[in-house]
Amino acid sequence: MFTCRRIRTLLAALACTTACIAVPVHAQSDRDLDVQVRIVGDEVQSNATLFVRASQQRVWDVMTDYERAPELTRDLQISKVVSRSGNTVRILQKNQVRVGPFSVPVETVRDVKLQAPVKMDARLVSGSMKKFDSSTELVPENGGTRIVFRSQAVLNPMLAGFATESFVKRETEARMKELRTEIMRREHVASVRP
Asked: How far is C-alpha 107 from the chain's CA centre?
């Protein structure tokens, strides 16, 4: 039986990881990935770091490819840029969160402030949550780029009983691995082009 807490978990995981465009998994070590999740009251706080062997620009290109995100992200049905104003994009995304035989639709409209190719800050404008703020920094390191992702999400009261820290962590890890896979796929494609 699915409890309110289980559904909240699924929705929180989706909220915390949708800001990172996700894609298929590569052979890079999971030691390069660290995800920490805490639930404090109604707020789900996620912190994740991931090192990828790719340039900061390549990582940026994948993470800001909002229109292609449904091709690369499981459960993401729609992702489109609704508007642009200076360095801010408004993004509409629709997901189906699966809980056993059930699925729960989740929709968000977020404003994402882009500081290419270093940082993006997102804030919820409307949708299935009360709050969603995230910050992603791309830090060049020897041999690649470290992605540093932080988010705070508060679900609507109807959904608030469903999140656990372990589920949000697993979902966040899966999304970060998918992101890494797409980055590495694009790195490979670029390296074999004449």
From this structure: 14
Residue 111 CA to residue 68 CA, distance in Å, equals: 18
| C-alpha to C-alpha distance for 69 and 7, rounded to whole angstroms | 23
Q: Summarize the confidence of residues 46-73 as an average pLDDT.
A: 95
CA angle 79-25-120, nearest 5°? Answer: 45
Q: pLDDT tens digits for 1-50?
A: 445 444 444 444 444 444 444 333 334 567 899 999 999 988 999 999 99
Sign of the torsion angle spanned by Cα atoms 108, 95, 91, 123: positive
Strands of the chain (E only): list them: 33-40, 43-52, 76-85, 88-99, 102-115, 119-127, 129-141, 144-155
CA 39 from centre of chain: 18
pLDDT tens for each residue of 89-141: 999 999 887 666 767 788 999 999 999 999 999 999 999 999 999 999 999 99
Angstrom distance (rounded) from CA 13 to CA 88? 24
Q: How many CA atoms lie within 13 A of 26 on its CB side?
A: 22
- For residues 110 and 125, the answer to whether their CB atoms sit within 8 Å is yes
Domains of the chain from N-terminus onward: 4-192 (3.30.530.20)
